[in-house]
Amino acid sequence: MNSLTRKIWTSAIVLGMMTPTVTLADDDVQMGWVSRRGNTYWVENGVVQGTVDDPKAVGAYTSSGVYAIRGREIFDPSTDAWYWLDANNNGAMATNKEVWMPYIYQGDVNSEGKWVRYNDSGRMIKGWYSTSSGTYYYDFQTGAMFKGWHEIDGSSYYFDETTGILREKETVVAPGLRQRDPRTNPYSGGYSNCTWTAWQLALEHTDIAMPDWGYSTNWYSNAHADGYTVSTIPSPYCIAVYYGHVALVTSVSSDGQSVYIKEGGYLGRYNERWVSTWGTGTKSLVGYIYLH
Q: Under DSSP, is residue 240 helix (H, G, I), strand (E, B) or coil?
């Protein structure tokens, strides 16, 4: 039978919890990834790695002075990506998770550790990444979350010292002289705010940094005053302006009666959905702003 065949409970501590050693049957995979009951595991010699019995697993001391195994970082050359085996989940691959590692691998040892993030497929994220909380940047070599001031592609960015969220972008206009980059989102609130989200998505999808048009309902008239084309007919990658709401349109149905929008501030979070060309059901349309 192709299944996890036995679990031996150990007295070792994983973040203060008992954890099992998971062993696979002899006829199972001896080296590589194995999926069981909704989780994915990395197996070596038929044994799941990243648990308390993995000699390569790393840990840290808790506030009570107990050494707790956290898991193990591995590199899979077949996907050219790093993954985290979570000891707190019996060695299962971590997905959609932010992880603090006691040490930095990949050739750079640092006892202070690093914060990294893994996406929905388990791969370590590198470069720019946005969530409902804000925008982050992860080092391309180590995957470490940036905090404080960093130079990226010729511009300076400031990331919150505690959370790592992007707070400000500046460009160097002369040695020792900086100015705020006009492409910095003028709104706040992250994905909980429809204006922040629409502005950010427009930049990411069209590379257009819109002006600060104030309150959402006013975007239509202010855009028209700034020379943007406005209409009641939608097109892909335009801004939909409603009374009290804005969103980015990414698709229009073949009959022109529906649009697919990406939005923030939907029950306080990010959302995507098809809605009528004339409104969302709760918000009536003002019009559309063309970005091209």
A: strand
